[in-house]
Amino acid sequence: MDVRPLDSRRDLQGVHRVNVLAWREAYDGILPESVLEERSVDLPPGDAAAQYDRLRSQPGCFLVAVDDDVIRGYLFLRWGHDSKQFVDEDEAGLKEIYVEPDYWGEGIGTRLLDRALDELPDYIDAVKLEMLAGNDVAQSFYESHDFEQVGSTEFELGDDTYPTDVYEKHV
């Protein structure tokens, strides 16, 4: 398994596929089935270029875990200006970390997280994230990597809101 930076628009198709598969598995019973099933594993062709350019222009790191030229997981960690109010200037926001469900428990998430933490600027003293409440897989992963729950908030999806938990890890 190779962990490397996102380096092409082609990577985004694999990232999108992993995201959709992980969402369907991790959020089953948390989000409505209609929300989970409406997302296609195929990224619309025009979306890749815009997403790639947007991601490459933001301060942070976007890593992919690749096995035999297939993306099995990814992580997006951002610092500097973050869209979440609970992330301060001297902190990084873990925006996304997803692993293809068939590969859960094989250490891919740990490898992605370890590599991302190694790439943090010196002025960053903590990493924060928000996850949907009730996501036991994510909770177990984060707590096993020394993240602690420090608050809660809500996530808007369409016309609905869902409770979330905010976690923090000092680095």
From TrEMBL:
Domain spans labelled N-acetyltransferase: 1-171
Keyword terms, alphabetized: Transferase
InterPro entries: Acyl_CoA_acyltransferase (IPR016181), GNAT_dom (IPR000182), MshD_Acetyltransferase (IPR050276)
One function term, GO molecular function aspect: acyltransferase activity, transferring groups other than amino-acyl groups
Pfam families: Acetyltransf_1
Protein name according to UniProt: GNAT family N-acetyltransferase
Organism listed in the record: Halobacterium bonnevillei
